[in-house]
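REQUEST FORM: STRUCTURE PREDICTION
Request ID: SP-0412
Submitted by: Lab K.M.
Chain count: 1
Length (residues): 232
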Amino acid sequence: MTRSIMKTLLVTLIFFIQLPIVFGQDSTTNTFKNQLGVDATFFIKTYFQFNEFTGNPIPNYMLTYKRNFEKSSFRSAFGVNFESFFPNSAFDGDSNNYHNKSFDFVASAGWEWRSMISKRWLFYYGVDARYLIEKSDADVNYYSGGYANGNISQLQEVGIAPFLGIGFNINDRISLTTETSFAFIMSQSEQTTTYIPVSSDYPEKPNITDPKVTSQYTLFLPPMFLLINFNL
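STATUS: Completed
RESULT:
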């Protein structure tokens, strides 16, 4: 199941579950302890057929959760993606059954503090701890010299990300938020290049495993996404 299908199903389900609750409330005085959020940017793009973005913000969360206290919140988020397909061979007589698959998972947990600017607008800030893992196992990415060239790779990242955000309360049940962050990340990656002969005319060729690569970097994420949040 691709990321787009998973997100469409998730957003649609939460949207219709919340409709009776959201439009049955007009007051902004109630206090709710739990908040569930989804990526409204994807919702708008999918259902109103806006043009595709050139790229998704990283990390790409599907679902967020907050436990609210008087002026602060514990927050967490996760995103997951599975992709699997069977590419056709580019050569006649190639009897290999190629399979390309990938998996990625991103999660964060942190604390935020908030301050009301007005009855509906709020400002918040805090810090998250983040984790990401990406795995890919592709039998074929391209062909060269009688071989299907593929790769097996894995990337893991951990980081700390201070953030600033702004939100708008539509009513006491639903709100919109967006934020920017600056992450300090440690990363480790490894990769193996694989070779599959396209026919018996070509001998077996050993795979090549690259050394693990460890690095540190910083990542600025502008407020390019919009979350729709439901108080429960």
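NOTES: The mean pLDDT is 85.
Reviewed by: T.R.
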